[in-house]
Amino acid sequence: MGRFAGLWHERDFLKLWASQTVSVLGNQITALALPLTAALTLDASAAEMGVLVAAERAPFLLFGLVAGVWVDRVRKRPLLIAANLGRAALLFTITLAAVADLLTMAQLIAIAFTTGILTVFFDIAYYSYVPTLVRREQLVEANSKLEVSYSVALVAGPGLAGVLVQLVTAPIAIAVDAGSYLVASLGLARIRAEEPPPTSQTRPPLRRAIAEGLRFVGGHPLIRPVVAASATFTFFGSMQLAVYVLWATRDLELSPALLGGLFLFAGLGTLAGAAVTARMVTWLGLGHAMVTALLVRGVGRLLTPIAALVPPLAVPVLALSGFVEGVGATAHNVNQVSLRQSLTPEHLMGRMIASVRFITWGAMPLGGLAGGALGSLIGLEATLYIGGAGSLLGAVWVWFSPLRQTASLSAATAHSDG
Asked: Which of 5, 12, 280, 404 is disulfide-compatible with 289, CB 3.0–4.6 A?
């Protein structure tokens, strides 16, 4: 309780938290409005939906490693503000093009790709910035609070997106996300804590700096299985994501408002996950809690296509699917992010995050393309089953690693130091 109270009195962290809450709320609107723009406004095919998902995540594969080196060499807060402003401007062009009746699938893919580039730099800088505002022993609490923001956004964002799409069309709804980036930038600009300058250790040549980050992640016995598990899950999850909106709107004939409302249950699940994460670690130990969370996430994914087996109960089953996945997602994310931040030296933080994102988020465009191709070849529902079943494999990496027997973050740090 003391540490909880401590962060509530850290004004600069609260400003960061508030800014990120606004931003992720807007993100959740676009997360639904963007594919709905493609599916409903532009009548996209399964293959085009796969390309759209790939375009959003391909920048992590193409630019992530270089971004990690660069982030380690600059102050983070100005970069966060610039990335938010850039994303706001790009998203506004979707709304303007739609109003002028000039929006095309090519433009939508191009904007998804360019905003993805800015997201690469933002996310790496953001996760590197958090440890400069809080002490290492406060990281779990800080990440839990930030995860609650994501949970609240999952509760409110998609439902709001569904209503906005129903009322004013998907491209207009995207303008709300653009506005959220502007508000978040103002909040970040109000942070007063002086950010420590990058150290001289962060100045090796680019190729060597990238290699150091990859070596650290690939060679660490506790970080490596976490990354492999996340990459497995994101690959198969993106396979599902590529076809989910098409399947829900065309096969199940769900309206945008109802589809947005279903995401409410994923948000409730993440809130429930935030409430039980610390207890899971206490009851099961860190490693077993992470295995459990990954299995729960996979079960949630697998429940999605099962909804089609009982059409009268499709909506309740999809709601349960989102809730179950949300519980597992929060429990997994809070622990794996805190673990990586605790085990990484400050001068490697940006490169660690970039290397992890290169591997895990780099799997997303591959999964998206695979999902689009499979959706065209074997059908949307069959692709959803493959994505759900494959997601369960993520737990295997942690189970067969030293992390499974690790009881806590302090034990993980001691193991690493030893």
From this structure: 280
